[in-house]
């Protein structure tokens, strides 16, 4: 029993892939960057890397929140709309009051957290499946943004200088925005991996019935997950406003799918219970690099979508393969009396 | 299974205060009265058996102890003090642990995390101290005397190992009352012995154990006292030494039960099912046998000997690597349950919840699904025909249900099994394969299933039965094929088959 205890799938190769899933993503990233740079050395110039990190910052941030929700067998499709709402609300507040950047970040977090709480209440207390609940809030919140914004938009000239500097500034070649996202990633990673509340989220996603029997406070944990996802989407809205300077009612439109794609490619099990924030972050980075590398490689835009789709299918196929192999390994092991 | 020795521990005079006691507990679900006056005293240091037919209220009683249900009336006392558990966490904090038949673990988390979820040891900054957690887990398993790697994921553990994880969890919560709901239903003999060793040690340390089982040999091997329940109420509590099994069975069913194994003698007819050299890599090897019309042939052996795999391969589930299966002399193609069904083979699978029933569909749909083509006109299922067929079979098998439109998942285990049987009998099979036909169902229903199998054989059906229950094998089978490690280790006629002769073949002991 102990000899077999470590082998999950009955195949050393697959075990390796599984254990070093994050490593696999890093290798994929390295290969992609390497090939692209070989063909066009300017791909790795300081300016181009900075652009890439700018582009990745918001997706990465939202992927952290999405990971937390997906781990509980949920999904949060409303993140694009929450981002739009937060971007417009904080943008308006900034242009009206000229408040400081820190306050704006706090406001965005609060707007997002409120939206997340709404999702959590619908999912947990309303017993509505997360897919449907957040699909509903996706439309409702987008409607609210259109209602508030009407046809108007916020321009860079309306925003305080300091805020725009925060959006475009960087330290040692790393944009502030990206640094914020990485800090959040690290915090979420530690929360999920090393705190009881974080482990409870895995437990809920792995076996909800067992979680109930074990006395895991499901309501509180699910609320935490949705509020966290909402809050990070709200924070993403502020970063979005800071980066682009202009915000209209369509900010963040359709973004939820990019975020879900990043999370799935990053190895977070869509049926909950398994995955890491680091993986999701790497997934977000990989998708952004693909996005930026393909034009450099002169590959048609159409292929970019197809490649992302293929990556998602490959990620899910890998999970399936692993679980089928694990089941088979168990069967052969169990077929003879120990 | 190795013969279970009676527990030699003397039934000492119980201390005055029970660890847990239930007084006149009642619980209803809508119009159904699941419990109507259940009494139970559980003393520290005793293993107490709770027996009763399915539907007698055992599960409801357990769920009240677990804090999942609250009683409508009556009192639950802990060390003489009345308590009311708000939820499962409250019951666990009070020292009550429930080990379910199929443990509910978190497959994605490590064994150690499964033990300590929600109360992992914390180090600096409130971070979980993984090293300490794994150390504590290893210490627990060492105390139980079973080796287990605390860092491996719970996914892939055998049911026996999962139960040990649950027991370790209970110990780590310093549970004083351990409730075990049919823990041995899915275990092999060796695993049962290991489990009993652990339970005996716990009992000697002063824990109170409530043991629910349908197997009287196990009850006698482990427990000192036994409580019988019927129809939601307490019937009797006795020292096991003072009461005979027949008497317990009589109290459980509330009437004199005819023979448990009403096997009729039937002259075997033509060979109907013929299996030659059946091989599936890693599962079974070179298995050959025949079953004649009117015969009941049992496949015996330890869990994991490959019995279920053989009957599944016969029915065409999964590929076969070599071998032939013939029905009435005509060969069946591999991997096609459809062809097997057309040839008149029916398989009642081992796991009725997973493989036998569509739990969310109505009883009616479940009972008629194998015949939906024959019941349809111009491709449409006519409701009336389906309903009539389902009602007919439910009546013939004495299925107890509220409404044919209720979901099959709402039935008790025994009645679910009858619906599965109805579904297959309705196809009028020539060969009926039953895999663990009476697992987890009560004594009364068991006898009904046995009677049914016997009368089917008398009608000329060839019956192939897989069973882990030795008494069932010996009581029902005309011939016993004993499997060991994927091969047929030997064949015994009805006169030669005894507990010893079957076990010798099954374990390979000389």
Automatic annotation (TrEMBL), chain A:
GO cellular component term of the entry, any: plasma membrane
Cited Pfam families: BPD_transp_2
Membrane topology qualifier: Multi-pass membrane protein
Molecular-function annotations in GO: transmembrane transporter activity
The organism's place on the tree of life at top rank: Bacteria
Assigned keywords, A-Z: Cell inner membrane, Cell membrane, Membrane, Transmembrane, Transmembrane helix, Transport
Subcellular location field: Cell membrane
Entry's transmembrane regions: 20-40, 52-71, 77-96, 103-125, 131-149, 170-192, 223-245, 257-290, 302-322
Role summary: Part of the ABC transporter complex LsrABCD involved in autoinducer 2 (AI-2) import. Probably responsible for the translocation of the substrate across the membrane.
Binding partners and assembly: The complex is composed of two ATP-binding proteins (LsrA), two transmembrane proteins (LsrC and LsrD) and a solute-binding protein (LsrB).
Protein name (record): Autoinducer 2 import system permease protein LsrC
Organism annotation: Glycomyces artemisiae
Lineage: Bacteria, Bacillati, Actinomycetota, Actinomycetes, Glycomycetales
UniProtKB/TrEMBL annotation, chain B:
Membrane topology: Peripheral membrane protein
Molecular function as annotated in GO: ATP binding; ATP hydrolysis activity
Keyword annotations of the record: ATP-binding, Cell membrane, Membrane, Nucleotide-binding, Repeat, Sugar transport, Translocase, Transport
Location, primary (coarse class): membrane
Boundaries of every ABC transporter domain copy: 20-256, 266-510
Source organism, top-level taxon: Bacteria
A GO cellular-component term linked to this record: plasma membrane
Family matches, as CDD domains: ABC_Carb_Monos_I, ABC_Carb_Monos_II
Localisation: Cell membrane
Pfam family, one: ABC_tran
Matches recorded under SMART domains: AAA (SM00382)
Protein name per the record: Monosaccharide ABC transporter ATP-binding protein (CUT2 family)
């Amino acid at each position: 029993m102990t000899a077999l205890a470590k082998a999950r799938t009955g195949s050393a190769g697959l075990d390796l892939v599984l254990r070093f899933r994050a490593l696999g993503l890093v290798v994929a990233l390295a290969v992609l960057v390497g090939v692209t740079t070989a063909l066009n050395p300017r791909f790795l110039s300081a300016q181009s890397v900075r652009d890439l990190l700018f582009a990745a910052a918001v997706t990465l941030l939202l992927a952290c929140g999405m990971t937390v929700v997906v781990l509980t067998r949920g999904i949060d499709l409303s993140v694009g709309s929450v981002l739009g709402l937060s971007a417009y609300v904080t943008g308006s507040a900034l242009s009206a009051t000229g408040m400081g950047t820190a306050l704006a970040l706090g406001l965005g977090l609060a707007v997002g957290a409120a939206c997340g709480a709404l999702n959590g209440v619908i999912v947990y207390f309303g017993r509505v499946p997360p897919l449907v609940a957040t699909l509903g809030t996706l439309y409702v919140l987008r409607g609210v943004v259109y209602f508030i914004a009407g046809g108007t938009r916020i321009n860079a000239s309306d925003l305080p200088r300091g805020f725009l500097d925060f959006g475009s500034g960087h330290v040692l070649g790393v944009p502030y925005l990206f640094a914020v996202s990485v800090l959040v990633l690290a915090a979420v990673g530690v929360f999920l991996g090393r705190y009881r509340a974080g482990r409870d989220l895995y437990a809920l996603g792995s076996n909800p019935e067992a979680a109930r029997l074990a006395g895991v406070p499901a309501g509180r944990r699910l609320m935490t997950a949705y509020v966290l996802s909402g809050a990070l989407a709200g924070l993403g809205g502020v970063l979005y406003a800071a980066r682009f300077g202009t915000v209209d009612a369509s900010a963040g439109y359709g973004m939820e799918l990019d975020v879900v794609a990043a999370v799935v490619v990053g190895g977070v099990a869509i049926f909950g219970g398994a995955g890491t924030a680091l993986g999701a972050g790497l997934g977000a980075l990989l998708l952004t690099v693909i996005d930026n590398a393909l034009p450099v490689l002169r590959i048609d835009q159409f292929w970019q979508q197809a490649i992302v789709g293929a990556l998602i299918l490959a990620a899910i196929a890998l999970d399936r393969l692993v679980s089928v192999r694990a089941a088979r390994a168990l069967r052969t092991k169990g077929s003879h009396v120990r | 299974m190795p013969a279970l020795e009676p527990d030699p521990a003397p039934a000492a005079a119980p201390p005055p205060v029970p660890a847990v006691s239930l007084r006149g507990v009642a619980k209803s679900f809508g119009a159904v009265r699941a419990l109507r006056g259940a009494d139970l005293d559980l003393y520290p240091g005793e293993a107490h058996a709770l027996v009763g037919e399915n539907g007698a209220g055992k599960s409801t009683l357990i769920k009240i102890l677990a804090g999942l249900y609250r009683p409508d009336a009556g009192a639950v006392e802990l060390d003489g003090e009345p308590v009311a558990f708000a939820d499962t966490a409250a019951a666990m904090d009070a020292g009550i642990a429930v080990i379910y038949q199929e443990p509910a673990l978190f497959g994605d988390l490590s064994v150690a995390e499964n033990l300590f979820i929600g109360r992992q040891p914390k180090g600096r900054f409130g971070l979980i101290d993984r090293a300490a957690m794994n150390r504590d887990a290893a210490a627990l398993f060492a105390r139980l005397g079973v080796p287990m790697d605390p860092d491996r994921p719970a996914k892939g553990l055998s049911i026996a190992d999962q139960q040990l994880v649950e027991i370790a969890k209970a110990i780590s919560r310093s549970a004083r009352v351990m409730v075990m709901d049919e823990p041995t239903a899915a275990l092999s003999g060796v695993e049962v012995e290991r489990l009993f060793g652990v339970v005996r040690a716990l009992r000697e340390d002063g824990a109170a154990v409530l043991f629910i089982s349908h197997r009287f040999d196990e009850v006698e091997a482990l427990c000192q006292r036994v409580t019988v329940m019927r129809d939601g109420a307490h019937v009797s509590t006795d020292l096991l030494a003072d009461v005979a099994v027949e008497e317990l069975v009589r109290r459980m069913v509330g009437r004199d039960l005819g023979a448990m194994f009403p096997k009729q003698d039937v002259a075997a007819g033509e060979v109907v099912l013929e299996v030659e050299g059946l091989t599936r890599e890693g599962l079974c090897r070179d298995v050959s046998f025949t079953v004649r019309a009117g015969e009941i042939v049992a496949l015996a052996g330890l869990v994991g000997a490959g019995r279920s795999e053989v009957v599944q391969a016969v029915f065409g589930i999964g590929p076969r690597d070599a071998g032939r299966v013939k029905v009435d002399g005509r060969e069946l193609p591999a991997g096609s349950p459809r062809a097997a069904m057309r040839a008149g083979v029916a398989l009642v699978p081992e796991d009725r919840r997973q493989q036998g029933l569509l739990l969310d569909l109505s009883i009616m749909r479940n009972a008629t699904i194998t015949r939906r083509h024959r019941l349809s006109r111009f491709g449409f299922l006519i409701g009336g025909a389906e309903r009539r067929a389902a009602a007919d079979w439910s009546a013939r098998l004495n299925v107890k249900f509220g409404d044919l439109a209720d979901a099959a998942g709402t039935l008790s285990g025994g009645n679910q099994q009858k619906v599965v049987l109805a579904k297959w009998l309705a196809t009028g099979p020539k060969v009926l394969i039953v895999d663990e036909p009476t697992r987890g169902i009560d004594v009364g229903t068991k006898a009904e299933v046995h009677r049914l199998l016997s009368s089917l054989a008398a009608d000329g059906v060839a019956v192939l039965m897989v069973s882990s229950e030795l008494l069932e094998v010996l009581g029902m089978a005309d011939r016993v094929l004993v499997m060991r490690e994927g091969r047929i280790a030997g064949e015994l006629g009805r006169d030669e088959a005894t507990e010893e002769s079957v076990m010798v073949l099954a374990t390979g002991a000389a």
